[in-house]
Design a protein that fits this description.
Pathway: Alkaloid biosynthesis; nicotine biosynthesis; Amine and polyamine biosynthesis; spermidine biosynthesis; spermidine from putrescine: step 1/1. It catalyses: S-adenosyl 3-(methylsulfanyl)propylamine + putrescine = S-methyl-5'-thioadenosine + spermidine + H(+). Pfam families: Spermine_synt_N (PF17284), Spermine_synth (PF01564). This protein is of the alpha/beta class. The protein has two domains: 13-75, Spermidine Synthase, Chain: A, domain 2 (Roll); 79-313, Vaccinia Virus protein VP39 (Rossmann fold), CATH 3.40.50. 25% of the residues lie in helices and 26% in strands. A hairpin with a 3-residue loop joins β4 and β5 (63-68).
Length: 319
């Protein structure tokens, strides 16, 4: 499934070359023949972590922009659509309000911020392999990084796969895999053995939400992922939803959502949200700007070309 793993860049050189003319260009083998470009009004940081090339710059239209290995990860202007949908499509669908949640990846803190929006959550863990990413987020994307300040948050700089593998079975109400594209350090987060470990550590009735690429660009990869999840989440539910976000390739990004069957054999129908996030009393989080119950349900309405390819491999919940 990870046919792009071999294309992992050693640095962001392709995109960086555009800086000479005052523009950053997102050039990648994962979307040949096209590139997203943003003008660089001010370069704020450029460096290499132990795992990837990191760039942060300021753009007049999108605010501060975080780039990893030449690929835009987040901008201040549009990050909320991704963070809110990735988090709440999962956490608002569980049969009972989630108490223990794990975020794998997500070093910018955006998903963790949205997890803490749920007052039911007692423990929000994050396992991020690259310690430079949270530090850059705290400095340059402070509202995204707000979740790091929540007393319920436990942030571990470690290998997320190793963290999940060592976790006790039936531990989590929800796991959110906020990975970058399946190249470089994130490629292993799309592999079957990792998903099988996730299934093991989810509680009965627990849910997974994993970044699952864009149907306009990588439908074959999404189909393979859906097939794999259907095999792993036996008698569970598997659905694909998506959101719009201007600075991601083709303006869309998708999520694979899976539910481990409950002890009574019931599963989750992700298309029907059961609750709305209710922040803890005194929270200073801003109101959500993208997610609501209507857009939740609409996220699973697929255009015909995607529905035709994916529907044989998706499983609707049995509540």
């Amino acid at each position: 499934m990870n046919k792009f793993a071999a294309h992992a860049p050693s640095d962001a050189a392709k995109g960086m070359r555009a800086l000479a003319s005052g523009w950053f260009g997102e050039v990648s083998d994962m979307w040949p023949g096209q590139a997203m470009s943003l003008r660089v009004d001010e370069e704020l940081f450029r460096g290499k972590s132990d795992f990837q090339d990191v760039l942060v710059f300021r753009n007049a239209a999108y605010g501060n922009v975080l780039v990893l290995d030449g690929v835009i990860q987040a901008t201040e202007r549009d990050e909320f659509s991704y963070q809110e949908m990735m988090t709440h499509l999962a956490l608002c669908s569980t049969k009972s309000a989630p108490k223990r949640v794990l975020v794998v990846g997500g070093g910018d803190g955006g998903v963790l911020r949205e997890v803490t929006r749920h007052s039911s959550v007692e423990r929000a863990e994050m396992a991020e392999i690259d310690g430079m990413v949270p530090e850059m987020a705290k400095k340059y994307l402070p509202y995204m990084a707000r979740g790091f300040e929540d007393p319920r948050a436990e942030v571990m700089i470690c290998d997320g796969i190793d963290y999940v593998t060592k976790a006790e079975a039936d531990s989590y109400d929800a796991i959110i895999v906020d990975s970058s594209d399946p190249i470089g350090p994130a490629s292993v987060l799309f592999e079957e053995k990792f998903f099988r470990q996730i299934y093991r550590v989810l509680k009965p009735g627990g849910v997974l939400c994993s970044q699952a690429e864009c149907a306009w660009l990588h439908l074959d990869l999404i189909v393979d992922l859906a097939k794999m999840c259907k095999e792993i989440f036996v008698n569970g539910s598997v659905q694909y939803g998506y959101t719009s976000i201007p600075t991601y390739p083709s303006g869309q990004i998708g999520f694979m959502l899976c539910c481990k069957p409950d002890e009574d054999g019931s599963t989750v129908d992700f298309t029907k949200p059961k609750r709305y996030p209710t922040p803890v009393e005194g929270s200073d989080l801003k109101p959500m700007r993208y997610y609501n119950a209507q857009v939740h349900a609409a996220a699973f309405v697929l255009p015909e070309f995607a529905r035709e390819a994916l529907e044989p491999h998706l499983v609707r919940g049995k509540e």
